[in-house]
Amino acid sequence: MKIKPDDVFIYPTDTVWGIGCSIYSESGHEKIADIKRTSKDKPLSMMFTGADEILASFKLPEEMSKEWLEDFFKLETTLGLPLTLAKIRIPKWATGESSYVSIRCLNTPVINSINNELRAPFFSTSLNLTGEPPVTKKEEARKFHQQHASDVLFFENQKSEDLSGTSSTIVFINENLNFEIKREGRRVEEVKEHLMKLFC
User: Fold this and answer.
1) Which tens digit of pLDDT belongs to each residue from 72-122?
2) Which of 87, 134, 162, 189 could be joined to 16 by an S-S link, Cβ 3.0–4.6 Å?
3) Rounded CA gap, 143 and 62, in Å?
4) Other CB atoms within 10 A of residue 166 CB
C-alpha cells in the first residue's frame, strides 16, 4: 500500500492499535488531533524501527548503547528524551510546549513497511477518542476506522495481532541519566531493573 507524505494511517503496535503520520506532515498531525478529538498542541510519540536509527537521530549518553536500547524497547516502553539531544529536525507541532520528545521503537513487518514508504519517523499515538480506552482488537480498530476515520489508510499484520492491550511504560531520561517513570505499563518492574543497568 503506497503512503503519500501527508497520509494518516491506522496500524497495530505491540501494545494497542495506533494512528500516525510522518512527523513532517503538519496537516497529518492536525488530522490525527481532529480524529481523536484532542488538542493540536498535545505532543505525540515518534516511532523508529531500530536502535541504529535512534542513535543516528539522537546524541545519547554512551551508557545508552545499541544493546541497551534494543532490550529496553522489548519491554513495551516509550522513551522521553530532551530535545537538545536531537540530531534530526523535529517540528514544533510534534512536541508542543514540551522540551522533551517521546520515542518508541518496534520492528514488525507493518511498521517496517510504513517506515520504508515514508523514509522518516512517524507519529505513534493510541487509536481512540480522547477520554476513551485505547483500541486493542482488530475488530474494534476496523470499526473505529469506519466510524471516525474512513478516509485514512488501514494496515494490519498478515498473522493475528498479539497485542498486550496495556499502554506502554513511559520513561523520561535526561543527559545525566536521571530518569522518571511517567506511566507504568504491565512490565514496569522489568523496566526498572533494566534502567538500573545504566549505573552498573
Assistant:
1) 999 999 999 999 999 999 999 999 889 999 999 999 999 999 999 998 899
2) 134
3) 45
4) 16
- The three-state DSSP-derived secondary structure of the chain is CCCCCCCCEEEECCCCEEEECECCCHHHHHHHHHHHCCCCCCCCEEEECCHHHHHHHECCCCCCCHHHHHHHHCCCEEEEEEHHHECCCCCHHHHCCCCEEEEEECCCHHHHHHHHHHCCCEEEEECCCCCCCCCCCHHHHHHHHHHHCCCCEECCCCCCCCCCCCCCEEEEECCCCCEEEEECCCCHHHHHHHHHHHHC
The residue assigned the cell 545504566 is 198
Q: Report the predicted TM-score, pTM, of the whole model to 2 decimal places.
A: 0.90
Domains assigned to the chain: 9-199 (3.90.870.10)
